[in-house]
Structures are given as C-alpha cells and as structure tokens.
Design a protein that fits this description.
156 residues, alpha+beta, 4-stranded antiparallel sheet, 3-stranded mixed sheet, 34% strand
C-alpha cells in the first residue's frame, strides 16, 4: 500500500474517533464543593466534568439525553440541575455546556457549606477543574460526511 493511502486511512480513522468521542457537561454549584449525584451514583464534588457518549444518546432532533443529577451540600441542602432537563441541544452548543445548581436560599447552615468549599479548595491535594472553554467562542459549525464505514468531520 502506498504511504499516502496509509496516511489517508489513518487520518480518517482518527477523525472518526474524534467525532464520536463524547460530549462534555460541566456540573457546577454555588457554593462549590457540593456532592454531585447522578442517577443515584456519587460522581464526586463540583465542579465536575462528565462525558456523555453521543453515539447512542443523541436523538434525531439533536438533543442529547443526560442523566438526572442534583447537588448535595454538607448542610443537607440539595438542588436539581435545570436546563430544560434532561436534554441538551448539542447542535447549539457543540463544545459542551455548563450547568450550575444554586443552593436553596431558605435552607439553614449556608456558612457550613461555604466553610466546606473553602476547606476543599485549600486542601493540599485539591486539583482545580480545568477550564476547557475560553470566555469567548466564535460560532462554529461542524459538518460530518460518511465514506463507507468512515466518518469525516470538519469544523469551520
């Protein structure tokens, strides 16, 4: 096989994998350091990125089915993540979304939750959540074409 053909096949394989790699959702809360519970499973503390497979969960209308999640603070306060749930319109937000749960204002012991957040952020083993999205993003469009069993995607 000629080297150019090998490189083309390899490039198409990589691009195909990149197109189906997943969709990032950043779950955040105010105050931060609340437990993130999705479908009854502990997912760690906020802020937290979760990746959803787009292969099986995207409806034909462009909505991604996500898990039912809520934030649980140390004081016992809880808030469900709202975004017209539980679907995310990935055509409008191709690079991912950020969802923030606000702690209920009428729930007691707000100071306890702020203290927990402060202690977690100042812990020696604390690793901040990276910011994958810059403050401004120009609108982009992604086009994907199928060539046999391969998928080629271009973003403009």
């Amino acid at each position: 096989m000629k080297p150019i053909v090998k490189i083309s096949i390899l490039s198409l394989s990589i691009l195909s994998a990149a197109c189906e790699s997943g969709y990032s959702v950043l779950y955040d809360s105010f105050p931060q350091s609340a437990k993130l519970i999705c479908n009854g499973q502990d997912q760690g503390y906020t802020p937290r990125y979760l990746s959803y497979s787009t292969k099986d969960k995207v409806h034909s209308d462009g909505y991604l089915k996500t898990w039912s999640c809520y934030a649980l603070w140390t004081s016992g306060a809880r808030a469900k993540y709202q975004n017209y749930f539980s679907n995310v319109y990935i055509r409008q937000y191709p690079d991912g979304v950020e969802l923030t749960a606000q702690r209920p204002q009428n729930y007691p012991n707000f100071a306890v939750d702020m203290q927990t957040d402060n202690m977690r952020k100042n812990a020696p083993d604390h690793t901040p959540t990276p910011n994958f999205w810059p403050t401004y993003q120009a609108p982009r469009t992604t086009y994907c074409n199928r060539y046999g069993t391969q998928v080629l995607c271009n973003t403009y």
